[in-house]
């Protein structure tokens, strides 16, 4: 679905953001794109969607270079940016003006999502709160039923019940032929939603794995003091020593995305090496 090959990008030549970054994303998945502040998540998403252009290398969607901004690609792609700007029209009018650019737009679904998010269909967009505006655009993006849906920090500005609604709605919306990418630094917001994790760090994608594959390799649990020496990584938290250990018994545990993210971005190679090993190397 998305193929990024040797992407090099910088805003200023003095500060390289990506150098030969490679990434391949498949349909049927909800990817969580994680990275520290300033890692370049938004910039990467802009390169994928053709809103920023690679200095070298390419970003392709279904084989077509996204920097060409071909109508056939744009009508099958929806991007909810981090900062949103809405026109001073009613939601109904917005749909009338905009939905025609998306041939698979489903107005029944749109109204259903709005209802679940408790956003009034007759509301004037600029008079809605920031969170309501965001929920209206997320609903619109989901109802476009595009093959690729990208949301940059969608949960920013959503209250706690809305975050739960967001997870439920997005999880129910994914079709087999669709790919959804959600960037965030609020890792917990993606719990029970994403099925694959991408970590952007130091200008590269250092991790691109399904949660199932991760839990086959490593386990996440509270450790006894004496187990700490054998752990691949651990943190001293209020719950005790929360750690990552090699999964030796084949039982899968829930992936603690925050702990995983902290371990791989802290320069701990043990966890990363174990997760990234091929099946043959692992046996
Ligand atoms: N339009 C721009 N012009 C120049 N530099 C930019 C521009 N947009 C972003 N940057 C810089 O590029 C780097 C990556 O920014 P980006 O917004 O892509 O990171 P991010 O991972 O999305 O961060 P955050 O989690 O804080 O939203 C930052 O150092 C930022 O200052």
From TrEMBL:
InterPro entries, A to Z: AAA+_ATPase (IPR003593), ABC_transporter-like_ATP-bd (IPR003439), ABC_Transporter_VariousFunc (IPR051782), P-loop_NTPase (IPR027417)
Residue ranges of domain ABC transporter in the record: 2-227
Any Pfam family matching the protein: ABC_tran
Keywords: ATP-binding, Nucleotide-binding, Transport
SMART domains in the cross-refs: AAA
GO MF annotations in UniProt: ATP binding; ATP hydrolysis activity
Protein name: ABC transporter ATP-binding protein
Domain of life: Bacteria
Tagged with keyword ATP-binding: yes
